[in-house]
Amino acid sequence: MVQIHTEKNQKEIKRHGNYEFPVNISPESIQSYEQGYFLWHWHPEIELTWIISGQMEYYVNDQKYLLSEGEGLFGNSNTLHSGYMKDGQDCDYLSVTFHPRFIYGYENSLLQTKYVDFITSNELWHSLKFEKDVTWHQDIIRQIQDICQLAQEPPEDYELQVHMIL
């Protein structure tokens, strides 16, 4: 059994990628966590979640989501979140976490100040559920699936391909 480890302020103690490749791709199972849930925590990285099978109750700040197979979630940078087993059933999911600098590159670049900070610093945009019946949501889910496939069978230019998707 595993559990998320945090500092006193609930910041997760885990590397989400590294300096060479700042993306963490992690297949998960809610049942692998103690008592079928992962603890409230936050991290500066953006998190994309795709539900492979089953269901999970997922909380972001004060918002509760029921995520089912084929759905997903955008969790913004620095949001407090937790996930729980639903009705004692397992849920397999993929978590893709990356620091916003993976998108904007240099600190205080135009990309950061004009586009990325607008999203990551907006408290109203703490999360977004990717629904099955919304076309552009499913486009994002397909891109998460592509990242999953790349992680399972990494080609030589794996990092470049993931960067181009994100």
H/E topology pattern: EEEEEEEHHEHH
Strand content: 25-35%
| Overall CATH architecture | Sandwich
Query: What's the total helix number?
Result: 4
Mean pLDDT: 92
Task: Estimate the helix proportion, in percent.
Answer: 10-25%
Span from first to last CA? 31 Å
CATH class wording = Mainly Beta
The number of domains is 1
How many strands, what sense, and barrel or not for the largest sheet? 8 strands, antiparallel
Number of strands: 8
The named CATH superfamily: Regulatory protein AraC
List segments where confidence is low: pLDDT < 50 over at least 5 consecutive residues. none
Give the CA-based shape: globular
Counting helices, strands and paired strands, the structural category is alpha+beta
CATH topology: Jelly Rolls
State Rg: 15 Å
Report on this model:
With 166 residues, the protein is α+β, with helices and mostly antiparallel strands. The chain has one domain: Regulatory protein AraC (Jelly Rolls), CATH 2.60.120.280. It is 25% helix and 33% strand. It is built from four helices and eight strands; from the N terminus they run βββββββααβαα. Strands 1, 2, 3, 4, 5, 6, 7 and 8 form an eight-stranded antiparallel β-sheet that branches. Helix 3 (135-152) packs antiparallel against helix 4. The longest helix is centred in the C-terminal third of the chain and has 18 residues, at 135-152. The protein is globular and about 45 Å long. The N and C termini lie far apart (31 Å).
